[in-house]
Amino acid sequence: MNRQSVRTFEVQASTGRRAVRGNGGRALLALVLGALLLLVTACGGGDGKSPAQREKQEPGAADTKASQAVVTVAPKNGAKDVATSGTLKVTADKGKLAEVQVTDGKGNEIEGKISADGSGWEPSHHLASGTTYKVHALAKDAEGRASAQDTSFTTLVPKNTFIGDFRPENGSTVGVGMPVSFRFSRGITSPEAVERAIKVTAEPSVPIEGHWFGNDRLDFRPEKYWEPGTKVTVKINLNGVEGRKGVYGKQSRTVKFTIGRSQVSTVDAKEHTMEVVRDGKTVRTIPITAGAPSTTTYNGQMVISEKLKVTRMNGATVGFGGEYDIKDVPNAMRLSDSGTFIHGNYWASAGTFGSANVSHGCVGLRDQRGAGSKSTPAAWFWNGSLIGDVVVVKNSRDKQIAPENGLNGWNMSWEDWKK
User: Fold this and answer.
1) Does 160-259 match 70-155 at the fold level?
2) Residue 43 catalytic?
3) pLDDT tens digits, residue range 363-373?
4) Of 69, 84, 227, 330, which residue is the least packed, with the fewest Cβ within 10 Å?
5) Of the residues 126, 272, 360, 362, which is catalytic?
């Protein structure tokens, strides 16, 4: 293109008119005016109406107004030394909660429930001590507009703690009479809180209830003996539970055990016999010796809580002074905390078993010294028994054993147990 073919237009400032020279300039002017017209049309919406006017006329247009819902989380963001119970609460004002998520430092979500009216949320159980929690809460107002709150806080680290020594052991196979038994290291003054933190379930399912013996022991059992093969799960969530003022639990774990075959052995102190019934069938009737007339054996249902191949039995430890001290009692199994055992006896004559009661309250079975034989009645019974098997004593001249004396809560009615 030569210089002569180039044409320009001039804007005369004084009049605002444009002077155009040449055909090329006219074409260029038309293009510029067209572009300006498009720009003006786009900026004006094309209909001369404001955005607010068009928003009112167009259904489904985006609502840019802020949500009226207000979410409040207690404790406040960044709080330290927060109590583990009764402090975490999420509320919504001018709206309803739509989502609440609380997680600990490991990402585990804390169970909770939004109230029916959507105004609040609280955790289903206490929090763990010495733990940082994150809270994410979202609420919506009447127009469906969302408002969120994200906070974090840390619970207290207790100066005083307690634990529960429990039975049976994790992974064990036990007899049908075995309860779940906790012995706490400190006296408990908030039993409801502690009991809520221990959940015992069974498969197949069966109702299971807890019962307190004093302020430091809590046992769980079903109404009747467990069914053989039952799988029992114990979830211990004591970490952060205030068992007594200023004293907090520090255990959090899951324990599982299995119920083995059924074995219930019945000692008839009058007849001097013990009938061993396994899975509903009598497998053996064994001659025994029970407590002498002056030192009778307790009646009632007793659960084997300990098995000892050889042990020492000293009368001084159970209130009998120096009447006996046998350092090598064979095949012994504990039936009570007060010293009742079913055990092997090698010092009485063979004719004693099945004919006379001569013990200091225990149930004796014929045995050999050293527990080396597998053929004696005591050895046979010891080898075939499980922790949790039941031994029932009847027709003794003594009283019924106390439910708290050993793992012997079966001597309480179900109604009394649930109280």
Assistant:
1) yes
2) no
3) 999 999 999 99
4) 227
5) 362
